TrEMBL record:
One annotated GO biological process: tryptophanyl-tRNA aminoacylation
Similarity comment text for this entry: Belongs to the class-I aminoacyl-tRNA synthetase family.
Protein name: Tryptophan--tRNA ligase
Short sequence motif named 'HIGH' region, residue ranges: 12-20
């Protein structure tokens, strides 16, 4: 019966980069035909780090707009704010009581984040993986597309689900990592051994999805390469390799085809072509974002009805769980 369920979410912290698009969002769009997808703007996760309320609200809406602009159909899928569905918090509390301190202590992301935000090591930062488990289990998701950095969190989700099921019977679907065509991993334009990230402090390191054409061309032109002078796809040339990945992802070519196309050409010519390829991919996306932004009524309507739809599915699971634990 029906399609398999897929859950994923993104945080509305910082401006989304080309890495977020080519590595995640673009794939979300293709997956949305095959699966029943719940794509959340996970704003509850965002407040584990201090946020300016007006900025968070603005970015959350921009992110949701981007999901739509990228081509995810809100009639066939569910695009919603995590904070609009109270089941996330309610299930997270229950799951907290089925999660061990020791397990959470082993999460490497907590270690990294608490080092980075040493002035605010709050309990939410520590129990973040439990909220993530609740996000996934609430919709009985079969699959979750995750990057390597989130693999540990999916593992703990599976452990919590199995633990709960062992006690109470088959309540939760135990989710699998989505394996299949993974998106390109895009690296920083300035330090190509580091991934491109919306939290990078150097604005030249990332192409932001709403950057204008001149900015994109300039950033590509200034991308760090090497002194080899040859366009080859190999680890020893991480900057060039990254530009090949970007160009290939934007044009649908393989890295080998890209290398062939630019054989014997200089870095200047190649960088310009990369910039133009990025512009051609982002321009229609940006136009669609602008069009949607103007249609406030439509956006509000999607936010409302998709939030209700998510709430409906969430409540089904939540009621089952509540009954099991004795509420
Ligand atoms: P960021 O590091 O930009 O804050 P997140 O960790 O919030 O990104 O990730 C959001 C989604 O985007 C995840 O699915 C992640 O795998 C993907 N993603 C983030 N950066 C990149 C990148 N540089 N290349 C490919 N995918 C990326
Ligand atoms: Na779908």
């Amino acid at each position: 019966q029906g399609k398999k369920v897929l859950f994923s979410g993104m945080q509305a912290t910082g401006n989304l980069t080309l890495g977020n698009y080519l590595g995640a969002l673009k794939n979300w769009v293709s997956l949305s035909d095959e699966y029943e997808c719940f794509y959340s703007v996970v704003d509850m996760h965002s407040i584990t780090v201090r946020q300016d309320p007006a900025t968070l609200r603005k970015r959350a809406r921009a992110l949701l707009t981007l999901y739509l602009a990228a081509g995810i159909d809100p009639e066939k899928n569910c695009i919603y704010y995590q904070s609009h569905v109270s089941g996330h918090a309610e299930l997270a509390w229950i799951l907290n009581c089925f999660t061990y301190m020791g397990e959470l202590n082993r999460m490497t992301q907590f270690k990294d984040k608490s080092a980075k935000h040493a002035d605010n090591i709050n309990a939410g930062l520590f129990t973040y993986p439990v909220l993530m488990a609740a996000d996934i289990l609430l919709f009985q998701a079969d699959v979750v597309p995750v990057g390597i950095d989130q693999m540990q969190h999916l593992e703990i989700t599976r452990d919590i689900a199995q633990r709960f099921n062992n006690i109470y019977g088959e309540v939760f679907t135990v989710p699998e990592a989505y394996i299949g065509k993974v998106g390109a991993k895009i690296m920083s334009l300035q330090e190509p051994t580091k991934k491109m990230s919306k939290s990078d402090e150097n604005p030249n390191a990332s192409i932001y999805l709403m950057d204008d054409a001149d900015t994109i061309l300039r950033k590509c032109k200034r991308a760090v390469t090497d002194s080899e002078g040859a366009i080859r796809y190999r680890e020893e040339q991480p900057g060039v390799r990254n530009l090949i990945d970007i160009y290939s992802a934007c044009t649908g070519k393989t890295p080998e085809e890209t290398v062939g196309e630019f054989e014997g050409k200089g870095y200047g010519v190649f960088k310009e072509a990369v910039g133009e390829a990025v512009v051609s991919v982002l321009r229609p996306l940006q136009e669609e974002v602008r069009r949607l932004e103007k249609d406030k009524t439509y956006l509000d309507e999607i936010i409302k009805n998709n939030g209700e739809k998510a709430g409906y599915f969430a409540n089904k699971t939540l009621r089952k769980v509540q009954k099991k634990v004795g509420f």
